[in-house]
Write a structure and sequence with these properties.
Blueprint: H1 2-5, H2 11-15, H3 18-42, H4 46-69, H5 74-87, H6 90-93, H7 101-119, H8 139-152, H9 160-180, H10 183-203, H11 208-232, H12 242-256
Helix pairs in contact: 3-4, 8-10, 9-10, 11-12
Length: about 260
């Protein structure tokens, strides 16, 4: 990467900045996420290995820019995360006794707070504990994070049945908005329903983004089956009707059940 950014190297690489690379970092993270789902479903880690390399490249790229600017080096990045891992695992590298995974999670936030206090860095002024969750997170992830924060201070449903009741309530409100033809309210009620479903996922210890991605992959595979079967019959999607496609969908579903 140093060679690529040096005089006589690659003009495009030389022009990049932290900001210009941010979109690629996000893209590579999502592609790695997708490769993880593929590896989990098929057992083939070929793409995961490749995507992890692409993601690592982004870290190296940013670190090279940092070194050129005198901000930080790749060694600083590595040393920082190593130090963090040691400090946040006193039950491994120290004498603290934490036997359950939940104990580790409960201790994690306190350790982070202690680290911030010890660093001497000026605390960012936050008007709410929810300000710690970036507003630019994908919607499902943001919902999961903000409700986890609220739950830690006791603002949460007591059990899953209460959330099912909330989902029923939001479904009824969405039906009412649809019947009234209130477009703006429909969008709001759809959001409320999604919010309630994510909370159910949280209570079930299901990561909603991963769960939805798996369903998306399942939909892709089954729809591709429809396209392939129609092609074998000499038909296109446009030549077919819903009844035919639905029958093929059920076949695809039976194959993967």
């Amino acid at each position: 990467m140093q060679r690529l950014r040096a005089p006589g190297g690659c003009p495009w690489d030389h022009e990049q900045t932290y900001a210009s690379l941010s979109q690629y970092l996000l893209e590579e993270a999502y592609e790695t996420f997708d490769a993880i789902q593929e590896a989990d479903a098929t057992g083939d880690t070929t793409n995961l290995r490749e995507e992890l390399g692409d993601l690592l490249l982004q870290v190296v790229f940013h670190s090279t820019i940092g070194a050129e600017r005198g901000d930080f080096t790749i060694d600083d990045v590595s040393a920082g995360v190593t130090k963090k891992l040691i400090l946040r695992h006193p039950h491994v590298f120290g004498d603290k006794k934490l036997s359950r995974a939940q104990d580790v999670l409960d201790n994690w936030d306190q350790l982070k707070a202690d680290e911030r206090a010890a660093s001497g860095k000026a605390e960012r002024v936050r008007e709410s504990i929810l300000d710690e969750v970036p507003v630019h997170f994908p919607g499902l992830l943001e919902t999961l994070k903000v409700t986890k924060k609220a739950a830690k201070v006791g603002f949460d449903w007591e059990n899953q049945e209460q959330i099912f009741a909330k989902i029923d309530e939001e479904t009824a409100e969405l039906r009412s908005a649809i019947n009234s033809g209130d477009t703006e309210n429909i969008a709001e009620e759809v959001g409320d329903l999604l919010f309630a479903v994510v909370n159910l996922a949280r209570h079930l210890d299901v990561e909603p983004e991963t769960a939805l991605k798996k369903t998306n992959r399942k939909f892709r595979d089954r729809f591709k089956f429809i396209e392939e079967q129609l092609k074998l019959e000499g038909k296109t999607l446009e030549d077919s009707n819903l009844e035919e496609m639905d029958a093929l969908w059920n076949k695809a579903k039976a194959k993967t059940a």
